[in-house]
Write a structure and sequence with these properties.
- The complex is a heterodimer of chains A (about 250) and B (about 475).
- Chain A is an alpha+beta fold and about 250 residues long.
- Chain A is about 35% helix and about 20% strand.
- In chain A, the strands form 3 sheets. In chain A, strands 1-8-3-6 form a 4-stranded antiparallel beta sheet.
- In chain A, α3 packs across α4 and α5 crosses α8.
- Chain A starts with about 25 loop residues before the first helix and ends with a helix.
- Chain B is an alpha/beta fold and about 475 residues long.
- In chain B, β15 and β16 form a beta hairpin.
- Helices cover about 35% and strands about 20% of the residues of chain B.
- Chain B is globular, with a radius of gyration of 21 Å.
- The chains are: A alpha+beta (about 250), B alpha/beta (about 475).
Amino acid sequence: MKAPHTKRPNPIADDGDEFTFCSTCAFSAACLARGLGKPELRELHVLVEHIGPFKEGEHIFREGDEFNAIAAVRGGTVKTYVNDAEGREQVQGFFLPGEVIGLSAISQGRYPCNAVALDTVILCRFSFTSMAALATRMPGLQAQLFRLLSEDIGKAALLAGNYSADERMAAFLISLSRRYAARGFSASRFQLTMTRTDIANYLRLAAESVSRVFRRLQDEGLIRVDRRDIELLDIKRLEELARSVLRE
Amino acid sequence: MNTIPPFDAELLRRYDMPGPRYTSYPTAPQFTSSFGEPQFREHAKRSNTDPIPRQLSLYLHIPYCFSPCFYCGCTRIITRDFGRSGPYLERLLREAEEVSRLFDRDRDVIQLHLGGGTPNFLRPSQIADLIDGLGRQFHFSRSAERDFSIEIDPRLIRDGDIAAYAALGLNRASLGVQDFDPAVQQAVNRIQSVEQTLATIEDCRRAGFRSINVDLIYGLPKQTLEGFAKTLDTILQVRPDRLAVYGYAHMPDLFKAQRQIVASDLPDPEMKLKLLGLAIEKLSGAGYCYIGMDHFALPEDDLARAQAAGGLHRNFMGYTTHADCDLIGLGMSAISHIGDSFSQNARDLPSWENALDQGKLPTWRGMTLDPDDVLRGDIIQQLMCRGEIDIPSVEDRYEIEFESYFEDSLRKLPRLVADGLAEVEPTRIAATSRGRLLLRMIAMCFDRYLTPSADPSVNRARYSRVI
């Protein structure tokens, strides 16, 4: 039975509590494999706290802030960005439920970018020091940390090539689809929590081009757009279009 | 659902009660003054953020009329001083400029409507200045589908006016007629000859207007079956593409001009029904399609085609073929519908002028729609445009379970079903052919804001009668 009252919500991992991990948790599998549940982690001072909610437009950290923790997104979407020398915003990435923000701060001890909530965001904050210490005793957790770090680097490099607007957009949509699917949400229907300008900035396109591409993909029957709701109607063709960007 | 529904006097009599016309849901009485300029700006800004932002629809309110028609419930200013329009236009363009800055430039204006009052109180050169100015501030669509329309009072039309409008890109006209019967015209203070009316329609045709609408009203003082039949026959001879046949709503407490109407001259409910029945019979015979509410169109008109193709929509300007535009209302009392918000400008001239003179937007009141408002608004829109609600698509789009969500609404339907107005099936709720003239009775079941029928006096003060 469907929920009687809500419009498609932004996915939120709401199943975590004092004893159970959220279904989207980036670390739960590695920890549980070693018999470490949430209470055990708390005792090890790894799991710091659930924080938020952050309101739309509220900053989670700013460039130059001292790095103290990494955080997994529990609900909502976080955008990271920097301002270039002319003060223009450059969007670096979007972080969905289950994804980890703050990794790029590890080497410098300070956050190299700003992080802002695009909608209502709830985070799960971990002490990186304790997590790293725990990881030395848990190969699974260490591997997971390395994986997250390399994903974070790979993400930024992805769109640097010389791709067409359609290819960039297809890659963006396929990436979102896979990331939602990996956390147990629908792969074909989701809400775009980022604005048209953010998408344009991230994909290095003009805002008008973003709309033109969305319209074209819709006219070709690949997607359906209803305000911020997106439905991927032909994932196979979108994947083909995205292949060169995603290097598959 | 294209044919004109059968007329059933007994049924209409039973459902003669006040109810909203649902040019919006929620309706204007729900707007509050806690919604002002900051909220308007915020919604406008937000409306640019969708992946494909909506196209724009501009409504411009020209409030001036040179003479008061007594039946009128519009916000208007009666004056013979044509010079007053200059300062008004100057402020209107200032408002447009300020508002246009809130919308991204790649959002095309696909619909533009000059309403009133009397838009052709303005001289063609003034209308040219207005449209030129708007064209600099907004990006006009170049699509052949665009609708740029003007309401016309034929009594003020001079030679060459219509051709001048067409040259400005206006392609639709709506003419006020109401009734040609001299006794009625006298009683409502609107003396308008058949000749000037038909000549104006002829001018519109010659100028290449894509569609011409004529407004008629039934239920006016001194109206008779013979007189109204003659009016209908006269108009049907020139076959306007669209006809609106409105029921006159006598609400003298709300509309001052209506106090000039002698209540004893008004046709009784029986007579009103006969007048409506006559109009339906004649339009039916002439091959018109029923669009919904009070609107009829020839089968080859865009509205009738859109209805057949499921592409009909409804907003403050009535029925339209353009899906979900953000609607920007400019001028005193104008209503906007941007994103999930409704808002209305100051309703009196001094307040509207003062706001603009102080560099503010003249937003007077409005409301932000919650998800429930959006959902119910969509359902009512489906009823008004297609005569039915498609339950699976509503469940899919809003992720609800229709039956449990609308438990209260569904409980009100059996009465309408018993009266043969509506059909309730597992996948759809539809107006029967009998019920199509009473669409708003079905819509009212889904209106969260209507006070329970235990106290109909509240609705009576706010809304006109259904018939």
